[in-house]
Amino acid sequence: MQKGMEKLMKNAPLAVRKEGMTDTIIEVKGVKIGGGHITMMAGPCSVESREQIMATAAEVKAAGAQILRGGAFKPRTSPYSFQGLGEEGLKLLKEAGEKYNMPVITEVMEIDTFDLVESYADILQIGARNMSNFSLLKRAGKSKKPILLKRGMSSTIEEFLMSAEYILANGNPQVILCERGIRTFETMMRNTLDLASIPLIKELSHLPIIIDPSHGTGIRELVAPMSKAAVVIGGDGLMVEVHHKPEEALCDGPQSLTPEIFTALMAELNGLSNFSFSRG
Ligand code: PEP
Ligand code: MN
User: Is residue 80 part of a domain?
Assistant: First the structure.
């Protein structure tokens, strides 16, 4: 038995994979996540304008991404940084998703705006900074929509699974885990992308796990190699930041892929093994 498994069984019984249990598959508007379906979620860090989200959505769709990402309420480290367009951003994201026939994912930062974000998004993201916001997790447990829960930057895998348990135990079985890197002594990368957590979590839990190599490294050139590695080791999908003009991005430009690089990555991923980014 895995070290610490007994404790985990007690503290996260719903998140833990019991013997013989198959992978949980979450379906959003015809897109399946988990259970051998590889899912690509792509789009800008933040929704900045109609032109930006429409142009980026068109590019990621054409490259084969199934889900469109874009932040409207942004958890920025500095209060002086761009905080997102708020409801206007949600409207633009939904419009782009409808136009390009892609479900949309966006972050919900607090209980106060939960109903609002829930009314526009197909998947709600709980960010790394909120992984231990237990009241927000409880609210997410009451939602009928899938929740993508990001690993906290200083959280252990056990804590991560217990946070997922908060959502499951409050009534929402649709939880997608997301490894986005943790903070270590390393300073040349934004975070240290803990890829070993993927096969471990696949073993410990039946929930789908996707990888965010954009926040995981903070470096554009590292996104493609880490994406390929993540899929090869059993990740259920990726979330990648793409901007139609990264040099003009209001947030996370240095880690955002150009549409050209993203298109090349999708082709490489599709050629990696015998899977394809297909709907359903
Ligand atoms: C994001 O995906 O927009 C984001 C802020 O990520 P994280 O919570 O992982 O920092
Ligand atoms: Mn970002």
Answer: yes
* pTM as predicted: 0.96
Atom of ligand 1 minimally distant from the CA of 252: 3
Q: What average pLDDT score do residues 157-174 get? A: 98
Average pLDDT, the chain: 96
Domain assignment present for residue 182? The answer is yes
Nearest atom in ligand 1 to the alpha carbon of residue 178 is 9
Q: Which residues surround ligand 2, an ion (CB under 5 A)?
A: 45, 252
Residue 210 in contact with residue 237, Cβ under 8 Å? Answer: yes
228: confidence class by pLDDT, cuts 50, 70, 90:
very high
Residues 195, 187 contacting (CB under 8 angstroms): no
Segments forming the whole domain that contains residue 73: 38-270
Asked whether residue 14 is assigned to any structural domain, the reply reads no
The b/e string for 175-197 (b: 16+ C-beta within 10 A; e otherwise) is bbbbbbbbeeeeeeebbebbbeb
- C-alpha–C-alpha distance, residues 79 and 19, integer Å: 47
CA of 189 from ligand 2 middle (Å) equals 14
83 with 47: CB under 8 angstroms?
no
pLDDT score, position 280: 60
Give the total number of structural domains in the chain: 1
